[in-house]
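Lecture 7, part B: from sequences to assemblies.

Below are the input chains for today's worked example.
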Amino acid sequence: MLQVNLERIKSDILTLAEIGRNKEDRGIYRMAFTDADIEAKRWLSDRIVAADLEHAVDGAVNVSGVLEGSTDQPRVMVGSHIDTVPCAGALDGTLGVVVGLECLRRLKEEGRQLKRTLELIAFSDEEGRFGGMFGSQSLCGHINPERLATMKDLDGVLLQDELRRHDYDPMAALDAARDPESIASYLELHIEQGPVLDRVHKSLGIVDEITGLFSWSVWLRGEANHAGTTPMEMRNDAFMGLADFAHEVPRILEENGSQRSRATIGKAQILPGAANTVPGLVEFSLDVRDTSEVILDDLSSAFRKALSAIARRRNLMFEFEQKSYLAPVGCSEVVVHELMEQANKLGIDFLAMPSGAAHDAQIMGRMVPVGMVFVPSKNGQSHSPAEWTAWADIGAGANVMLNTLIGLADDL
Ligand SMILES: [Zn+2]
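Predicted structure of the full complex, as structure tokens:
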């Protein structure tokens, strides 16, 4: 079986890690459309040209490398992203892009022409400087002129200004949309960003489902009063409502959720926020995830019921607003089967697992068949300079990707 050149992957990862590196905290700052991100896109373009692959950049500044197939059948795509969060590590999506590049490069130098065209793609702004998944959403046609004109980062910098600063036409992102019929499947390798593979000592995770999520802002409104003069039984203490609710979360997951359900209260504010005042208002976030849409619906009504009951009992008013909703996406059975078969042939022990984080594959999965592969994150760490994966595990994942791409592109 054809194998990747791991030394080349190493050297690409280490070279890219120097683009946007901060000397003091050793973190990588390659947020979307910063100078460092554009430099990394240029670097990638150069590598694509040097490998004698066709090079293309679309209207959303997604960078592609193409290995033409012998037929005009729908293409197989492979990729991820090279933008980072602030103070990032060297791998995250970058690993998926470098591995994809190596797969195409390896085939090119072997002189292998497959039946389907293979395309490597590095998507723009996956990490969310301007909201996240900008590149994959553009490719799937989810972007409109109003969003393009108003998207901004946390400092108020408009995406369109940032694109113009680098001589890109912001409205061109509308032309990045592809015909779903032109794509047979999309494959993404990513670090797990969780502790599971590291704990069970497996080199590879084959994702079967990508989790969906809803997130709410919740308000429990009581009455702010003096902490000394208001007797305990005469209080409408908003924080006590939140405390009751937090205790009910495990029960709700047990009764209405699955093994794959997660619920998190990650942010809370008590108002007016004085030590000697009974809290009159709590505002908190609720992030709920599962791989089944039906279970997400059940959880949503169970959480609503629990909050209403607590509000009644504690004499509080309950309100909530849904801030975001992402439907779960099942990975393609054909792609999952091919990944497992290649892993077995290569003698690589894998774990079938869900993806708990959102990736470009989740956006792509609504339009075309997708597959995802995870490699272990040491101690589950990611989005920090401590992020790491053993080279041997990277090699294992890359070889499974290479042979799966061959399998998918030569299946006619
Ligand atoms: Zn990522």
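Note for the exam: The domain at 212-325 is CATH 3.30.70.360 (Alpha-Beta Plaits). Keep this in mind when comparing with the next example.
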